[in-house]
Amino acid sequence: MVNVGFGKELVKKVSCPFCGMAIDRPRELKTRRPGEMPAGACACGAVYTFDITGHNLGSAFLEALVLACDMDWELASDLASGEDYSEKILERYDDQSHYIVPGGAYEGRRVAGALYFVRLHQEIQEVTGEGAARRLLRSEPEPFVRAAVRTPAVRKSSLTKKQVEELVGANRIEPLLEAAAAQDKKVLRHLQRLLCSGDRLFRFRVTETLGRVSAVIAAEDPAPVANLLQELANSFQYSAASNWGALEAMGEIIAHAPGVFGGYIPVLYQFLQDEGLRPQAVRGIGTVARVRPELVRWTIPRLLLFLQDPNPETRGCTAWVLGNLAASEARPGLAAIAGREEAVEFYEDGRITRKTVGQLAAEALENIEFRSQKPETKSQKPE
Fold it and tell me: Name one Pfam family in it (predicted).
């Protein structure tokens, strides 16, 4: 980067951290969906996304990686950092001046943005790079629109963890949604800690509440929710108790704000590889499938394999998801397990119900048959 002095302010011209070449300002994709970040590409093959807050780097990384993979989410979820791609971050990027501002302030503005770069290794880039380049060529310049000045909601005192626990236990969600509307972000932390409860019904209620509260907070400020999603995904590096309910919670958060957090679906998908976590990952995907099936229809080929999984919970949850996806190709596999008697617990309407694997398979077949009579819904997996 080249330092440029303007009066007393020192800024740096923006260049690709991989090859050192100057790069263009990130742009909106013409194929953009709500919540997606502006993006760009370098001639060396690197793709980058722009996070205006600098606190939503998890989403920035996922969007850059998926874009580099020509929007192939399944491919992106199978790649490993270091082995298949490299990543770098340029912090303190000012989108209005197109400079890096090390001091964090420029022309009276606070600068906190970040550019997240991903460059696929050559053998993978040869397959996907041209498609990603075409997509970026169809982009248009990002207009400079200053954020509207909002009148902040009148905040009441923050809810305590004990109050949150009592409200969830009583299945009283409205006070929590009111706190979220006032941007009481401590509610997110309290709910996250309550995921460690050994009471399964209570834990299911926490995950559902977390999804609804997150949607309200994200409507004003998605950054803390994105950080929470990243923490939930990373929780599996620690003790087993710390990740109870994490994948189901991720599914609820994505399902309640799919336009903003749909980029985290591949994170859920990658946990399908772990036999111990597979039932929770399937539940998380299924939660999204109930409200936005087109976003997870691409997971069907992998899910079909789990109808014969040795874990009955995985089989039952998979049948439930495939039914919600109206996956006609699942008919033979569902018919094969329609007589299984193992019981699976499901959370519905604030309580836990028990169904056999066979019942879930039969319901899925009925759902597929019913939906096959309707006009087919096209998948909205990114082009």
Answer: HEAT_EZ
Answering whether pTM is above 0.90, one says no
Question: How far is Cα 142 from Cα 31, in angstroms, rounded to an integer?
Answer: 14
**CA–CA separation, 117 and 176 (whole Å):** 37
Instruction: Give dist(CA 19, CA 16) in Å, integer.
Output: 6
Which amino acid, residue 36? E
Q: How many domains does the chain have?
A: 3
Could you tell me if residue 275 is inside a domain? no
- Cα–Cα distance for residue pair 303/334, rounded to 1 Å: 12
Range of the structural domain that residue 129 is part of: 3-141
Question: Is 281 a domain residue?
Answer: no
Q: Would you tell me how many other CB atoms lie within 10 Å of the CB of residue 329?
A: 12
Q: What is the pLDDT of residues 93-145, one digit of tens each?
A: 999 999 999 998 888 889 999 999 998 887 777 666 555 555 554 554 444 33
Q: Report if residue 269 sits inside a domain.
A: no
Residue 278 lies in a domain: no
CA gap 355, 348 in Å, rounded = 12
For residue 317, the Cα-to-chain-centroid distance in whole angstroms is 20
Give the integer Cα–Cα distance in Å for 258 and 237: 26
**DSSP annotation string for 24-39:** PPPEE-TT--TTPPPE
158 and 191, same structural domain?
yes
